[in-house]
Amino acid sequence: MRRYGLSDSQWERIKDHLPGREGHVGGTSADNRLFVEAVLYRYRAGIPWRDLPARFGDWKNVHRRLRRWCESGVIGQVFRHLAADRDNEYMMIDSTIVRAHQHSAGARKKGGADQAIGRSRGGLTSKTHGIVDAAGKAVALSLTPGQRADITEADPLLDEVDPATFIADKAYDADPLIEKLEERQITPVIPSRKNRRDPRKLSFRIYKNRNIIERFFARLKQFRGIATRYDKLKSTFFAAVQLVSAIIGIN
């Protein structure tokens, strides 16, 4: 296997969900695997597109094809398909800040499009929010400007999953979220804030499993093009986060 390439088992899990496969409507493509490996290589190494090794072909064609897949939702479909095979015993939510490189700024604001870049104490940043299952697989993801509060993404991400137990840190201790979890008969394992009058009982045996999502984000940020955002467009960067998360989940 080439450096940063897909293993045969990983390729088998995703190949039947890509456009251009045999029997698929439209033109067939014999180089889907090479293309996916080119995208993974670029984000793992954190290089400019024009520095892609020659074995992947013309970098402009690779980037153009990635944009087509972003716009048609191909990568999102692959992520959701793999995320459907999940462990519902317990899940956890958290977020991680991504520093936005100066090259990521300046995208044309067509119709006031939000590119998920904001200004916080660390400068220009984006924030990746995620829910991870007990096996360490990402099952729901979102991308926001870096100054966005963690709690704002809890509701929409929860709508995509149905765990028996939900683990989070104090940033998610809010009555509306707790009530929603209880209405759905999901057990919240969330420490109470210091100003809460009646602190909830907490199972520290279960809460200590929150390290699983921390380890997921650590693996995600081994991809240098994800640890630092270079992409101008939210759709491109988020598709990369989804693709890398999917590959991590089937390692």
Automatic annotation (TrEMBL):
One of its GO terms (molecular function) is transposase activity. This is IS5 family transposase. Residues 103-124 are annotated as: Disordered. NCBIfam families: transpos_IS5_3 (NF033580). Pfam families: DDE_Tnp_1, DUF4096. InterPro entries: IS402-like_dom (IPR025161), Transposase_11 (IPR002559). Residues 92-243 form the Transposase IS4-like domain. Residues 6-79 form the Insertion element IS402-like domain. GO terms for biological process: DNA transposition. It comes from Komagataeibacter melaceti.
